[in-house]
């Protein structure tokens, strides 16, 4: 009996994610074995790329979200739609409480991993920080 197509696609997607995760873990493990100069160069380049992309995505997200809120407000003012703000506020409060609970429950583990990486790869981390700030400034 053949598997449905969506299960094959799901398994293929999981395999791709696992392969990418393994590649990233190997690349991070190899960074600590390189020279200080190479770590600074890699850190600066990856930091600049991350900062630049973050700013570009942030601008697009801000325009999209802000534009959507403005359009909803205009539509509400003109009488095209009626927004139940009490219901929205209750949902937002529930979601923010859930996010805060998840974040505080998992943050120490994530933060500890980052701290260990930064401590063991200080040249890369310094280069990344400088490159990130440069990438933000250059966008």
From TrEMBL:
Superkingdom, natural source: Eukaryota
Membrane topology: Multi-pass membrane protein
Gene Ontology CC annotation, any one: mitochondrial outer membrane
Family: Belongs to the FUN14 family.
Protein's name according to its UniProt entry: FUN14 domain-containing protein 1
Transmembrane helix keyword on record: yes
The organism of origin for this protein: Bombyx mori
Pfam families documented for this protein: FUN14
Compartments in which it is found: Mitochondrion outer membrane
Keyword Disulfide bond: no
InterPro entries assigned: FUN14
Keywords: Membrane, Transmembrane, Transmembrane helix
Chief location category: mitochondrion
A biological process term (GO) from this entry: autophagy of mitochondrion
């Amino acid at each position: 009996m053949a598997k449905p197509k969506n299960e094959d696609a799901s398994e293929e997607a999981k395999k791709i994610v696992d392969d990418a995760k393994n590649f990233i873990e190997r690349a991070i493990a190899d960074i600590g074995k390189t020279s200080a100069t190479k770590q600074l160069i890699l850190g600066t380049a990856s930091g600049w790329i991350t900062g630049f992309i973050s700013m570009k995505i942030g601008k697009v997200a801000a325009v999209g979200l802000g534009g959507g809120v403005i359009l909803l407000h205009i539509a509400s003012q003109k009488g095209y739609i009626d927004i139940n703000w009490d219901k929205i506020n209750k949902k937002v409060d529930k979601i923010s409480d859930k996010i805060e609970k998840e974040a505080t429950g998992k943050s120490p583990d994530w933060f500890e991993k980052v701290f260990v990486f930064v401590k063991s790869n200080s040249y890369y981390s310094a280069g990344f920080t400088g490159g990130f700030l440069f990438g933000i400034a250059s966008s």
